[in-house]
Specification:
single chain, alpha/beta, Aspartate Aminotransferase, domain 1, Aspartate Aminotransferase, domain 2, 2 domains, four-stranded mixed beta sheet, globular, binds pyridoxal-5'-phosphate
């Protein structure tokens, strides 16, 4: 037996490649925001998390270039040691104010933000209660805690099901330290957490609340402040996490909450301490996008309007868009093969989307994840709807 045997036996991806239906790792040759060049062809992009379309905004690009000119391309070290710039601290202050918390702490990716914050707070004496469909980085944060502390206590509840959450909470010892973790906007299906009920239960059963708002900030709320703003619920959310790889057009992430909690995470989070800090261009990008979001809330409104239009139009065509209320609009097909086939025909027709199968969604709930940018033009959206209608009819889905 050889440790590499499993690699030789893994043939599924190669089979799909030979059949011409392999949808992953497809290189983009040119990025023009809502349109990209792939396989030498112009393609409408509805598979990106560049929600505000700011990755190609000249103001954002200029800020990134200036930061490189001033500080160089890398911080060459951890935040803990030589890797903190004044820019990191400026960004943390502004982010804390944006999400209405006392303090914020930036990590080099969103994934590391969840990994660091959760693994630091959860010891074997505490308990995490998590939605079953939360992002993988939340589960990995819990698994890392288990490794670090020789065990971690975790309970899962059914997706966004507050009765099931109460069932779980009511069985727990009342004085065990606990925290409920949820996505604000669920990443695959674009539905919003039932935050009013969740915080009510957290109060009743004395649990802390942690919201991963990767797909909420810049997307939801009148001024893009995310799930908290959508519901106007602020103080009952103890910790807010977000990534910079979506609305903020960069790479990195942060956690925000009470100063003492953030101070503690800052001194114990291994994914922060043992990894190099966000490079200057990435920080400057987020600073600029944050400024644009605050000065131009109309881009957030445009994105919201596009999301509502696409949900309405897809439903009118007879597609199942689940419970989405956001610019993430799933087209639920159910069967994996049909989903890949739909994806491939759509791509041949000049539209890039994301096919999603189990374990990212429950089995029999395979879907085409579509997501929109504030910079999509109406004519892009109309072409997309037209292609979906044609393919949906041909495949007997609508
Ligand atoms: C809900 C959620 N949390 C965390 C992350 C991780 O963020 P990043 O891609 O910046 O590492 C993602 C990204 O896919 C996400 O969707």
């Amino acid at each position: 037996m050889d440790i590499f045997d499993k690699c030789l036996k893994f043939t599924r991806a190669k089979e799909a490649m030979e059949m011409g239906i392999y949808p992953y790792f497809k290189p983009i040759q040119e990025n023009h925001g809502p349109r990209v060049i792939m396989d030498g062809k112009e393609i409408i992009m509805i598979g990106s998390n560049n929600y505000l379309g700011l990755t190609k905004d000249p103001r954002v690009q200029e800020a990134a270039i200036k930061a490189i000119e001033k500080y160089g391309t890398s911080c060459s070290g951890s935040r803990f040691l030589n890797g903190t710039l004044e820019l990191h601290e400026e960004l943390e202050e502004k982010l804390a104010a944006f999400v209405k918390k006392e303090s914020a702490l930036c990590f080099s990716t969103g994934y590391q933000s969840n990994l660091g914050a959760i693994s630091t707070l959860l010891t074997k004496d505490d308990l995490i209660i998590t939605d079953k469909t939360n992002h993988a980085s939340i589960f990995d944060g819990i698994f890392l805690s288990a490794g670090l502390h020789m065990g971690a206590n975790i309970k899962r509840y059914k997706h966004n099901d507050m009765d099931d959450l109460e069932r779980v909470l009511s069985k727990l010892e009342s004085d065990i330290p606990k925290m409920i973790i949820t996505d604000g906007v669920f990443s695959m299906e674009g539905d919003l957490v039932n935050l009013p009920r969740l915080v009510e239960l957290a109060g009743k059963y004395r649990a802390r609340v942690y919201v991963d708002d990767a797909h909420g900030l810049g997307v939801e709320g009148e001024t893009g402040r995310g799930t908290q703003e959508y519901y106007n619920i602020w103080d009952e959310v103890d910790l807010v996490m977000c990534t910079f790889s979506k609305s903020f057009a960069s790479l990195g992430g942060f956690i925000a909450g009470k100063s003492e909690v953030i101070h503690y995470i800052k001194h114990f989070a291994r994914p922060l301490i043992f990894s190099a800090s966000m490079p200057p261009a990435n920080i400057a990008t987020v600073l600029k996008t944050l400024e644009i979001i605050q000065k131009e809330p109309q881009i957030v409104h445009r994105l919201q309007k596009i999301g509502q239009k696409m949900i309405r139009e897809f439903q009118a065509l007879g597609f199942n868009t689940g419970e989405s209320k956001t610019p993430i609009v799933p087209i639920i097909i159910g069967n994996d093969d049909k989903t890949f086939q739909f994806w491939a025909i759509l791509f041949q027709n000049g539209v890039y989307s994301n096919p999603v199968i189990s374990p990212a969604v429950p089995p029999d709930r395979a879907l085409i994840r579509t997501s929109y940018m504030a910079t999509h033009e109406d004519r892009d959206l109309d072409i997309v709807l037209d292609k979906f209608k044609k393919i949906g009819k041909e495949m007997g889905i609508i």
